[in-house]
Amino acid sequence: MIVTVEIDGGVAVVTIDHPPVNALSQALRQALIETAEALDADPAVEAVVLICAGRTFIAGADLGEFGKPTLAPHLPDVIARIEGARLPWVAAIHGSALGGGLEVALGCHYRIAMPGAKLGLPEVNLGLIPGAGGTVRLPRLIGFEAAVDMVTSGKPVGAGKANALGLVDLLVDGADLRQAAIAFARDIATKPLPPLSRDRVAASPSEAFWKEQAQELGRRYRGQEAPVRALASLRNAAETDFESAMRHERATFLALRDSAEATALRHVFLAERAAPRPQSLEGVRPLPIRKTAVIGGGTMGTGIAAALLDAGLPVVLIERDQAALDHGLATLRNLYRTNVERGRLTESEAEARLAQLDGSTDYDVLSDVDLAIEAVFEKLDVKRAVFTKLQAACRKDAILATNTSYLDPAAIAKGLERPERFLGLHFFSPANVMKLLEIVPTRATSADVLATAFALARQLGKVPVQAGICDGFIGNRILKRYRAGAEALLLEGVSIEAVDAAMRSFGFAMGPFEAQDLGGLDIAFLQREAARANGQAIAETLCDRLVRAGRKGRKTGAGWYDYPDGSSKPQVSSTVGEILALPAGSRNAISHHQIAARLLDAMAEEGRAILEEQIAGSAADIDLVLIHGYGFPRWRGGPMHYAETNGGKGS
Ligand code: NAD
């Protein structure tokens, strides 16, 4: 039974038990509407409590119905039946009341919540707007300003804030939600029903408010439809009657369900859910990770250490000498100080994390670590020397990992006594922020070590993607192709700024050239030079020529663009065209759309090669890599999804 009813002294307790998250499936909607009818006809009942079993209130829509035609009874009808009941309904909320779950709670006459509960309408994150009264009932309860914020950001609010906003009538003090709800229901049973949503009035904000919001959303979600349509639905709700507003909202919801944006966001959402639990590892138990080490306290090492500390794992940072160690530890302390200053952490949270950090130049302190992640210079001999020391210092069953970007992990592991305990864990900069983790096993890596890497990713809140071994793994290999495509356009006479603008208008925060200027042109250059020194035939790129001319990006005041007087704003350079002998201006007629199409096709083509070579397990994995590691716009679904839904063409 998904829904059960118990009568407790005149209060009907309706319990939803529909694991794992009490999602609003067709069966649940049916059961709820039948229950509402039966209770209305029961003279012994004076009030109703709606409560959920398990870890959460109704957490949203049923994934099984995602993207499919909606089935009756439809959610707006279920909610209308509850709201129109003869008896007062009290939603008793714990865990999350999200999307349709919050809309059901809004249809109830009262809402009470546990202090840790979260309430939200996250539909815009899936390219949708609420479809069962969210944009109509919520503002009538909490006012338009607060409702606009909740609906257009998609961010849930905590129960305390919900209480302050008037969304929650009572914060439950104590652990027993059910008892508190029954007591509350008894109390209100004797009172008249509060006004229904249709009878509540919320004043429309000023014209200036709506204009400002529309501009802000246009800026923040450039190119995306859902947030703007959510705002339009709210505005309509402010300016028409309840029924028309409900009809308008539902029509928008149904129209958006099949939009390219909703399809893309659904694809990414489902891929993210699948990523941390690959089927190949089903039944394989991860090993416990209680203590970790990071070798190298530079850009990546400190970021990785912070990611581990943030997940509650103790870290020992190892550096090659005391000065470098002091520098690495100071970087971490500064990072946490900034987090406190920006209000991301409290002083005591930051202190607790730093208390888990230790540092040493001596590998002997590593005898009790379960995992050591190496992030030293990108040089095979330096890395191999580090692993020889790690092998001697760590327990036999410790996992040893490399953060190499381009070296072959199997070559790094060569000669290790226990290669089955070794793998690549490729983090992205800044490693405590970027969600992507490429997990790169060698042929020798054992299944439990691989399973541990996936479990670690979950613990760190990362999106893990398994990658095979090739130059650049998945992400950097596609990046290389993307950059080569962008340089090819320049040689055809397209301007640097046109390429960047085209990719920005597609949805990237930055185009390929301005992004390179920010990161530094010398990183990829040095990597190519090292490969050339190793005898690989790598053609000279335009980027190489700029670096040889001393233009390494923003940090040198000049790269693809000029940055005079320490400015961070790219300015078109008058000399780059000459340095690179570009055929300037001959293709200025090419549209942004065509430029983006060329580069997206290049990415997808490289992606297909990566799939054929089984470097990636699925096209969705490639999409996750580009979205979470390289700024590919999430709402476009990733390069593979985009190519597929655009008929294999980037256009
Ligand atoms: P970095 O130069 O900022 O830091 C390297 C650190 O390693 C330095 O602090 C150095 O003192 C230390 N070190 C060198 N030899 C050592 C040794 N024998 N023992 C202990 N410490 C030693 O470099 P980085 O950018 O942090 O890169 C580190 C690794 O991460 C490289 O393999 C790189 O390819 C990879 N990586 C870098 C990025 C990035 O964006 N920077 C992204 C992913 C992966």
How would you describe the overall organization of this protein?
Keywords: Fatty acid metabolism, Isomerase, Lipid degradation, Lipid metabolism, Lyase, Multifunctional enzyme, NAD, Oxidoreductase, Peroxisome. It comes from Rhizobium alvei. In the N-terminal section; belongs to the enoyl-CoA hydratase/isomerase family. InterPro entries: 3-OHacyl-CoA_DH_NAD-bd (IPR006176), 3HC_DH_C (IPR006108), 6-PGluconate_DH-like_C_sf (IPR008927), ClpP/crotonase-like_dom_sf (IPR029045), Enoyl-CoA_hyd/isom_CS (IPR018376), Enoyl-CoA_hydra/iso (IPR001753), NAD(P)-bd_dom_sf (IPR036291). Pfam families: 3HCDH, 3HCDH_N, ECH_1. By secondary structure, the protein is α/β, with parallel strands linked by helices. It has three domains: 3-258, 2-enoyl-CoA Hydratase, Chain A, domain 1 (Alpha-Beta Complex), CATH 3.90.226.10; 289-466, Rossmann fold (3-Layer(aba) Sandwich), CATH 3.40.50.720; 475-645, N-(1-d-carboxylethyl)-l-norvaline Dehydrogenase, domain 2 (Orthogonal Bundle). Helix content is 46%, strand content 11%. It is built from 26 helices and 17 strands. The strands form three sheets. The chain has an eight-stranded mixed beta sheet, sandwiched between helices. A six-stranded mixed beta sheet has the order 1-2-3-4-6-9, sandwiched between helices. Strands 5-7-8 form a three-stranded mixed beta sheet. Helix 2 links the parallel strand 3 (47-52) and strand 4 (89-93). Helix 13 (322-341) packs antiparallel against helix 14 (347-354), helix 18 (475-491) packs antiparallel against helix 24 and helix 24 crosses helix 26. The model has no long low-confidence stretch (mean pLDDT 95). The site of nicotinamide-adenine-dinucleotide has 23 residues, from helix 12 and helix 15.
